[in-house]
Design the sequence.
DNA sequence: CCTCGAGCTTAACAGTGTTAACTTTACTCA
DNA sequence: TGAGTAAAGTTAACACTGTTAAGCTCGAGG
């Protein structure tokens, strides 16, 4: 398979797939629908992407980049480590709720899909977590947070963010709980949970 | 549609669907596969379940009951509110990781599915959250936790539990992070996050 | 002019959920 | 007893899905 989608048709396929993904959602992205939209036969796609997985992986790749950009933008200079972390958390949640189709293919889609996700792309996806980890590490260095493995901490934060994004996004949360309130409480709790407590350092 | 799956074939369909779900996973549960396994035609299923959704909803119902049982069992008498909450958290995570097929149809499956989920079953599913909320409320009453809307708190806890279960279950967490360590840190953090801090009551 | 290969297509396979129409069996009622 | 009916299950079909194998078209090179 070609690596860089700069050629004509491959670009067109990827663009159409993205357009379909963002407009009507992942469930409506099918090889035939993509092909019909651009006036080609469905099998043409297989000339550029070995199978649907590869095509979706390309879209995941775009999503990873988009999220990285959002997290990076949130991570402005001149902020305290705690503020950095807070802004990143908000950026993550916003991404998850405003780009649910990307979020779905990136973090929700069935395990089978992700197992075939190439290792080198996995590494790239990890950069997003590392951005969060670095904010935590900075806070620990500044003695604002308790000493703790920053990568483990980042995963802890990630799980919490992922949890609130998926529950809200899938409309599984009771509507009597105001969405904004749950988000605020989540961010607040994340920050607070890292602060140094009088009981001293904990595991 | 019949309400109670006590009749012969309906029972058989549900049992086979469950068996297929737990043995080979949701992706392999198809009307034809269920029917083949019991020597009936696929359309027979439609005599008892209006569509696949209804059949899956019946399985979700079973899952909700299973989880409730687990949470209820964890909620033993003679424990402190804090211990109650901790045991429930562990029970939830264990359920999610040991019965991933149930967890998938209950809490991961695409929103489209859940929108058609009947309101009365939704109410039943909420009992699980209320069990967690009651433990939190008890802790607040005992002044171990800060005063806070216990239902909002329960959703906060739920999001965190859901996050760690789905990330671990989908194998998206870097394998250099030991699973058990992440779980311990999560439970620990949940409990700790509710404790009264010297800075006083917070939102 | 002929060959070759890039680029794309048609036809097909095996699978999915679902519907309409049909059969078969058994039971009720005049 | 015979007719009618309703229950229980069937077959055939539709419109989809991802994917593969084989074939077509057309322009460039020798």
Sequence:
């Amino acid at each position: 398979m070609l690596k860089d989608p700069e050629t004509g048709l491959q670009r067109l396929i990827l663009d159409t797939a993205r357009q379909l993904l963002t407009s009507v959602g992942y469930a409506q992205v099918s090889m035939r629908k993509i092909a019909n939209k651009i006036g080609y036969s469905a099998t043409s796609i297989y000339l550029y992407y070995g199978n649907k997985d590869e095509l979706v992986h390309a879209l995941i790749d775009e999503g990873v980049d988009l999220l990285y950009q959002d997290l990076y933008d949130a991570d402005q200079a001149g902020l305290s480590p705690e503020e950095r972390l807070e802004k990143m958390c908000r950026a993550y949640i916003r991404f998850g709720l405003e780009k649910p189709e990307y979020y779905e293919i990136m973090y929700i889609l069935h395990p089978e899909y992700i197992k075939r996700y190439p290792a080198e792309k996995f590494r790239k996806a990890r950069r997003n977590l590392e951005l969060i980890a670095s904010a935590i590490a900075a806070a620990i260095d500044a003695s604002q947070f308790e000493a703790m493995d920053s990568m483990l901490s980042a995963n802890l934060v990630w799980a919490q963010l992922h949890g609130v994004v998926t529950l809200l996004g899938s409309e599984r949360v009771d509507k009597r709980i105001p969405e904004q309130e749950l988000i605020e409480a989540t961010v607040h709790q994340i920050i607070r949970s890292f602060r140094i407590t009088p009981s001293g350092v904990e595991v």
